[in-house]
């Protein structure tokens, strides 16, 4: 089957400092790819390069076989490749419903009635439809992140990028967000997830990428990567992290 | 004619005589300050939106047009912030008369509004730039990430929050304009200060006349500040919100009210 996204030899450097070096992998429909690695390994930068929040300094990204930077209109590409942020980034000047409606009306030119209907559908899916009239500041972290997921879903994206979606949450709220993500995964949503939640990666991912020092060290299905990591760097990382988490 | 002998006697005498004139002057002052602030705000918004457009990638000649625009906007801001409005009004008014843009004897009001707007615009551009910086950059990123253009992100997400944050400074500008429109008396705009000067000159009662004028200015600025505080509170939205539906009844709702701490 053809890839939705194909990352080829992606490079990113800030000045002299190379953050990503020769990153290549492809994303197929229905893939749930978790990207793990210690902080500073370039995971988030990679995700941010995929939707051009950071401009890559080398390589290319193909979306349905066409160069995402040159052959796709940036706004269209961005609406098809959704993003969920670590710090939620809900629009502070709009209530929950409006957060989900705004992009549809502005970018997809959907009529308000239809946009609201779709917004409520997705808000219901993440269990936040009751809070449609609340402002972001009135919600808990977990609630905000669920609304942020609904906002991304409202654009009916083909791929969703998650940049450490649970890292800013209090421990008791992590579960509700992971639950929603798991639900999306089982419904066939294509997702690219930067995470520190090893058990989530093990249970939900179809593939796990381990990054270190700006390169992908290992790219394998979770059973293999977690039980029989091939690379010494992966083994060392997992030993350190799993001892703490499990 | 009975000439008053006391301070309050003169005050009420002048009020009686020139009340109508003062009222007109107040109207002109308010009109110039209000339209100057509003137009200046619009100028500031546009300048700020343009100045926050990210430079395109690529060779220098693709960045050139935007860099030229940045440069011109900076010149505008520096010139109008760096010279007194009283001097600007002389230069602009008599300058445009010299090059034949306006004729001697044309009403001075439009020129006055133009001067205050363009002057305020220069300050507003910087104030709004500050406001934009104060909005978390994740807001722009989130808007970009769902496919919004720079313009859409600015007008629907960033600027509304930026403007809320700078409301106190906008209020300041309005108050400053109410007071500083008085310098427009140099191009014979019959605003509040100008009417006070006329009234004072006729009887040589400067203290009494300008005491009245001072009181009117104070009432104006105080009222404006209060109104702006109300606007700010309105912008913050309701402290209450409603939660819709419950497990047993999907049409029920409860309203959560947050008391101010």
Structure description:
The complex is a heterodimer of chains A (246) and B (261). Chain A is of the alpha/beta class. Chain A is built from nine helices and ten strands. Chain A has a six-stranded mixed β-sheet with strand order 6-7-8-3-9-10, with helices on both faces. In chain A, helix 3 runs parallel beside helix 5 (141-154), helix 4 (112-125) packs across helix 5 (141-154) and helix 5 packs parallel to helix 6 (171-186). Chain A is globular and about 55 Å long. With 261 residues, chain B is mainly α. Chain B is built from eight helices and two strands, in the order H-H-H-H-H-H-H-H-E-E. In chain B, strands 1-2 form a two-stranded antiparallel sheet. In chain B, helix 1 (7-51) crosses helix 4 (109-134). The longest helix of chain B has 45 residues, at 7-51. Chain B starts with 6 loop residues before the first helix and ends with a strand. The model of chain B has no long low-confidence stretch (mean pLDDT 90). The chains are: A alpha/beta (246), B mainly alpha (261). At the A-B interface, helix 2, helix 3 and helix 5 of A face helix 5, helix 6 and strand 1 of B.
Look at the helices and sheets of chain B and give the structural class: mainly alpha
In N-to-C order, the SSE pattern of chain B is HHHHHHHHEE
Principal-axis shape of chain A equals globular
Q: How do the strands of the widest beta sheet of chain A line up side by side?
A: 6-7-8-3-9-10
Shape of chain B: flat
- What's the helical proportion of residues of chain B? over 70%
Taking all Cα atoms into account, the compactness measure Rg of chain A is 18 Å
Q: What is the strand tally of chain A?
A: 10
Task: Give unreliable regions of chain A as ranges.
Answer: none
- The secondary-structure class of chain A comes to alpha/beta
Placed side by side, the strands forming the largest sheet of chain B appear as 1-2
Range of helix content of chain A: 25-40%
Weakly predicted, low-confidence segments of chain B? none
**How many strands appear in the DSSP assignment of chain B?**
2
Distance between the termini of chain A: 36 Å
Whole-number average pLDDT of chain B? 90
What is the number of helical segments of chain B per DSSP (H or I, 4+ residues)? 8
The proportion of strand residues of chain A reads 25-35%
Mean pLDDT reading of chain A: 93
Note the main sheet of chain A.
Answer: 6 strands, mixed
Oligomer classification:
heterodimer
């Amino acid at each position: 089957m053809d890839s939705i996204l194909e990352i080829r030899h992606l490079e990113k450097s800030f000045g002299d400092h190379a953050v990503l070096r020769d990153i290549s992998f492809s994303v197929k429909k229905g893939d749930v790819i978790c990207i793990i690695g210690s902080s500073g390994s370039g995971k988030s930068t990679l995700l941010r390069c995929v939707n051009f929040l950071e401009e890559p300094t080398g390589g290319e990204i193909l979306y349905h076989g066409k160069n995402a930077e040159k052959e796709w209109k940036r706004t269209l590409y961005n609406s098809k490749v959704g993003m969920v942020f670590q710090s939620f980034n809900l629009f502070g000047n709009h209530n929950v419903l409006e957060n989900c409606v705004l992009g549809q009306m502005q970018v997809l030119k959907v009529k308000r009635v239809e946009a609201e209907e779709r917004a409520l559908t997705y808000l219901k899916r993440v269990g936040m439809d009751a809070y449609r009239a609340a402002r972001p500041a009135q919600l808990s972290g977990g609630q905000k992140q669920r609304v942020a997921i609904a906002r991304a879903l409202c654009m009916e994206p083909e791929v969703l990028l998650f940049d450490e979606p649970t890292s800013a949450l209090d421990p008791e709220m992590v579960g509700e967000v992971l639950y929603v993500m798991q639900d999306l995964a089982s419904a066939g949503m294509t997702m690219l997830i930067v995470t520190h939640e090893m058990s989530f990666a093990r249970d939900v991912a179809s593939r796990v990428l381990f990054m270190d020092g700006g390169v992908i060290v290992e790219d394998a299905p979770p059973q293999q990567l977690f039980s029989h990591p091939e690379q010494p760097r992966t083994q060392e990382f997992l030993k350190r992290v799993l001892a703490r988490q499990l | 004619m009975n000439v008053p002998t006391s301070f309050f006697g003169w005050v009420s005498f002048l009020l009686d005589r020139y009340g109508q004139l003062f009222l007109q002057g107040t109207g002109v002052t308010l009109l110039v300050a209000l339209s100057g602030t509003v137009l200046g705000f619009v100028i500031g918004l546009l300048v700020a939106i343009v100045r926050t457009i990210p430079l395109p990638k690529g060779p220098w000649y693709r960045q050139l047009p935007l860099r030229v625009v940045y440069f011109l906007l900076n010149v505008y801001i520096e010139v109008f912030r760096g010279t007194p409005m009283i001097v600007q009004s002389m230069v602009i008014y008599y300058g445009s008369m010299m090059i034949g843009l306006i004729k001697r004897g044309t009403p001075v009001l439009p020129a006055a509004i133009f001067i205050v707007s363009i002057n305020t615009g220069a300050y507003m551009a910087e104030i709004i730039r500050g406001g934009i910086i104060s909005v978390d950059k994740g807001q722009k990123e989130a808007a970009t990430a769902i496919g919004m253009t720079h313009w859409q992100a600015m007008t629907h997400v960033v600027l509304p929050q930026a403007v809320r944050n700078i409301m106190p400074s906008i209020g300041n500008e309005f108050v400053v304009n109410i007071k500083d429109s008085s310098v427009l008396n140099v191009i014979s705009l019959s605003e509040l200060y100008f009417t006070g000067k006329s009234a004072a000159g006729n009887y040589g009662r400067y203290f009494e006349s300008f005491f009245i004028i001072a009181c009117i200015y104070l009432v104006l600025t105080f009222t404006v500040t209060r109104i702006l505080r109300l606007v700010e509170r309105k912008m913050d939205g309701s402290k209450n919100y409603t939660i819709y539906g419950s497990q047993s009844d999907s049409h029920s709702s409860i309203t959560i009210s947050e008391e101010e701490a």
